[in-house]
Write a structure and sequence with these properties.
eight-stranded mixed β-sheet; globular; FAD; about 25% strand; binds flavin-adenine dinucleotide; FAD/NAD(P)-binding domain; alpha+beta; 20 strands
Amino acid sequence: MPSATAPTLRIAVIGTGPGGLSSAIALSELPNVHLRVFESAGELKNLGAGISVNHNGWKVLELLGIRELVTGASTNPTVQRNAYTGEIVDPGQPHNPDDPYEARRVRRLVLQEALASRIPPGLVEFNKKLVSLEDLGKDGVRVSFEDSTEATVDLVVGADGVRSVVRKHLAPDYPLEYAHQVGWRTLVPVERLQHIPDLPLTTTSWWYGKAKSLWLSPVDELSNLRLIELTCRVYGEPFVPGKTVSWGVHVTNEKVSDRFTDCDSRLIEAFKQVEEGTWREFAAYQGGDIDSLVGWHKLALVGDSSHPSIGGFGSGSAFAMEDSWTLARAIEYALSTLTSPSIASTVAEALRIFDTVRKPFYHEMFQFRLGQKNALQQVYRKEYEDFDGDLRRRFSSDGLGARRSKGFLSFVYNSDIGKKWNDFIESDKARLSRQ
Ligand SMILES: Cc1cc2nc3c(=O)[nH]c(=O)nc-3n(C[C@H](O)[C@H](O)[C@H](O)COP(=O)(O)OP(=O)(O)OC[C@H]3O[C@@H](n4cnc5c(N)ncnc54)[C@H](O)[C@@H]3O)c2cc1C
């Protein structure tokens, strides 16, 4: 029941990726919120193939109440291989069936349907492409769409992805640049691959070449194995004016397989089994560490909109859901702690809290990336005197790859947003009691 004394907040969520859908779940559960969700596409998009859900992802799915709806294949062991010779350079960590938070590869559609199943029917307004925002002072924000319609709200949640229009208003000079990296992704029915001798289909394998890599993984529970994900990455791709903006566009089999003709024969045969028209291309864009996730005392960025980077360590969806859940908690907390909350004071306080809890994480992520820059340059280079030896060294006990597979990204994958939130509450209560 909405509280009679607390103000009703008008909130617009822009976008229905993992960030927008999880925002819709978390915010629609709050009393005193009038929620609208806008999406530029005509329907929910199913872009991409598989998605890794790590410890952090399971934790936030639990908080959103949809963990049981999301299933997939364990990514342990992830076997690291030489793409030319097939040599195993790292056998990966063993599968631990007793760990409920173990990393799994999940079909993106499964995650999307789980999220969509928990939002009120009819909530999403499709074919609503945000074009501009106008700060109306005490009256809120005017949200304008390409079809010339408008809405006025108290808070705009920018879940509109890498090329966020909300971010452009919040940080107009934020630099977004092409990262010279392209991903190609598809799903292949398992029966089309089963004839290939020794092609691993029930474990995840990552195959490395010169300035390219390929990821092969089941995305369904092994008891119900139906689809295998193929994801390729190529580095050092030139910018093609007017063309290098691809995000989920079709590419031909020839374009993809041509880049892997020098690879292990199992991979070459696997490429031949891909149904024409099913590859999708994703050109990677990146930006820097944004100063703040909030602005105007009325705008908040969730998900990729705030940290366009080359993937998010394969955890960008979890980040988006963590942001959304935290934003809802921040609004709830602001309403409960402000003595006489107005709309403006509630939104301003909720955004302050949201930024306080989430911004340090993204800052740490960008700092980490800076530290990895030189090591990553090595991975991306095309010329090698001894590629096989270099790859083995990369996965030797102190190599970048080995540390990556043995948990040195723990601040990302093992994070627990529920715990972080509780820690914030404890410290804030201590702050309030000192006042
Ligand atoms: C190749 C590749 C591999 C990846 N692998 C993983 C992985 O293994 N695990 C993982 O967790 N993440 C992975 N990611 C990252 C993950 O896909 C993103 O982090 C995640 O989708 C971010 O969600 P989001 O809701 O912030 O943005 P998006 O998913 O980009 O959604 C944005 C939404 O906003 C809509 N929109 C955009 N502009 C407007 C506008 N002007 N008006 C209205 N609506 C608008 C779009 O149509 C879209 O529906 C991968 C990404 C790529 C490209």
